[in-house]
Design brief:
The protein is an alpha/beta fold. The protein has one domain: TIM Barrel (Alpha-Beta Barrel), CATH 3.20.20. It contains nine helices and eight strands. Strands 1-2-3-4-5-6-7-8 form an eight-stranded parallel sheet. Helix 1 links the parallel strand 1 and strand 2. Helix 2 packs parallel to helix 3 and helix 8 packs across helix 9. The longest helix has 15 residues. It is globular, with a radius of gyration of 17 Å.
Length: 258
């Protein structure tokens, strides 16, 4: 069984300082590749270091997270553009808008998101979206910057059936975390049950959101994407080997990993 964790934060505390153990657990669980997300310049550089230490097993996405939008300065933009030119980079992001926490003013979030979309537009790499209680504004900015029918994924999707349909209509896709395994996630499970097999992708968002049956685990790990895969296979009425093959094939194509 081959699996890919399409979204993790290997540079965060709880994972980074025990990275050898974390990657060993991945190998034991069949997780062949982890895409680690740099949410600012420093985290992006740490991610690049891991990708060079574990070639092929760790790949990198990088961008400015909306939480830190108010702190992004001119030097940060230059440094992030340099990161975006590195060969280990497979996607831009995560980027987007977060109106739940509002850790940065909404106008600052929108400006930083829009500039990232503008800078990334000429490059043929996927965009990883963070959207929380901000779907209409996120969709509007993506369309405004010409991203219809381009490679865009709404990571850690927990939205409505209507939002999932709107995302599909634009040619984009969604990715499922361990949240789909939670007992009270019936609406999300209904979306996942019917989601097209040729677009299905899975992630951990580790060190957060540990899935059932390890939900009590303090630090989620990329290896636990296997639990999410197993749950989705049962939910969709297919074997785990089939589900693993489908999600791995989709991730390889979306991120051009093969």
């Amino acid at each position: 069984m081959r699996l890919i964790d399409t979204h993790a934060h290997l540079t965060y505390p709880g994972l980074f300082e025990r990275i050898d153990e974390v990657m060993q657990h991945c190998a034991e669980a069949g997780v062949e590749c982890v895409i680690t997300i740099g949410t600012d310049v420093d985290e992006a550089h740490k991610g690049l270091e891991l990708a060079r230490r574990f070639p092929g097993r760790v790949r990198v996405a990088a961008g400015f997270h909306p939480h830190g939008a108010a702190k992004v300065g001119s030097a940060d933009w230059s440094a992030m553009e340099a990161v975006w030119a590195e060969p280990e980079l497979v996607a831009f992001g995560e980027m987007g808008l977060d109106y739940h926490y509002d850790f940065a003013p909404r106008d600052a979030q929108q400006a930083v998101f829009a500039r990232q979309l503008q800078l990334a537009a000429a490059r043929d790499l996927p965009i990883i979206i963070h959207s929380r209680e901000a779907f209409e504004d996120v969709r509007s900015l993506l369309l405004e910057h010409g991203y219809k029918d381009r490679r865009v994924v709404f990571h850690c999707f927990t939205g409505t059936e209507q939002e999932a349909a709107a995302i599909a209509e634009c040619g984009w896709r969604i990715s499922f975390t361990g949240i789909v395994t939670f007992k009270n996630s019936t609406a999300l499970q209904a979306i996942a049950r019917a989601y097209p097999a040729d677009r299905l992708m899975i992630e951990t968002d580790s060190p957060y959101l540990a899935p059932v049956p390890v939900r009590s685990q303090k630090t989620n790990e990329p290896a636990n994407v296997a639990h999410t895969a197993s749950f989705l296979a049962a939910l969709r009425g297919v074997g785990i080997e089939q589900l693993a093959a489908e999600t791995t094939r989709n991730a390889e194509a979306f991120f051009a990993l093969a």
